[in-house]
Amino acid sequence: xxxxxxxxxxxxxxxxxxxxxxxxxxxxxxxxxxxxxxxxxxxxxxxxxxxxxxxxxxxxxxxxxxxxxxxxxxxxxxxxxxxxxxxxxxxxxxxxxxxxxxxxxxxxxxxxxxxxxxxxxxxxxxxxxxxxxxxxxxxxxxxxxxxxxxxxxxxxxxxxxxxxxxxxxxxxxxxxxxxxxxxxxxxxxxxxxxxxxxxxxxxxxxxxxxxxxxxxxxxxxxxxxxxxxxxxxxxxxxxxxxxxxxxxxxxxxxxxxxxxxxxxxxxxxxxxxxxxxxxxxxxxxxxxxxxxxxxxxxxxxxxxxxxxxxxxxxxx
Length: 316
Known about the structure:
Layout (H helix, E strand, L loop, with lengths): L6 H8 L8 E4 L2 E4 H5 L1 H5 L8 E5 L14 H12 L12 H4 L14 H6 L6 E4 L9 H4 L3 E6 L2 H14 L9 H10 L7 H11 L5 E5 H6 L1 H11 L6 H10 L2 H5 L36 H14 L12
Parallel strand pairs: 3-4, 3-5, 5-6
Antiparallel strand pairs: 1-2
Helix pairs in contact: 12-13
Enzyme class: transferase
Family: Belongs to the sulfotransferase 1 family.
Pfam family, one: Sulfotransfer_1
């Protein structure tokens, strides 16, 4: 019998087939080519009613990776809540294996998100960056719980830019000056940030979506973790919640090899260009935008978000 490869071994074996994949439109949304080619199988996925979906707009993602909109953070919080704060249980495997990335497809022998889900029994925690209109209908038909995490546009864009620089399977980001226009036009993987955050916001009541803000999580992690706990119908002691707050601090997670994606080989994730877990701050955008760029972005933001009324904060 052939030895089953670990996730890292599978990536090492497939790394010569990995490249900066181009984007292809799926129902008007640009997705990385391997995802677009397999989208019908993704769309046909039928979750169990007990499955939980964690959704965010990317700041980049590929190879089962999440990025910095708070997705990795939220995944770790949820896993710890489901395991009563047991840190060792949550080190059983890398985040990408514990919580499969629904739509990701990579060259064999790297397992796709669907492959990983097929090996797991419900209830499962699943990650996606898909805009709400591309989420498989089974999640809504089966009334699955969905947690959505949003981050203010400027910080989200800065984080996405740095992730695209270090992730050698994402499209080449080009210079910062041009990247701003790509972001505003929705010409990045997973499409428009504006459409993404508005889509889940508009459906949050109808579809029982817990809509969280990265900035709120940074400001008061204990409060937001308790919100997640209640949404999941769990009851944990205050001591356990405090322990989870500590375990999911940026400092601790950055040193956790099961959560910081250092297990991805350098030719694919070059942490010397930009670490996967870079800063985790609110307001870092001020170090990247010039005054004229900020004004241009703000004017476009006002047009695109005019009727949304979503309470984003660019500082806390």
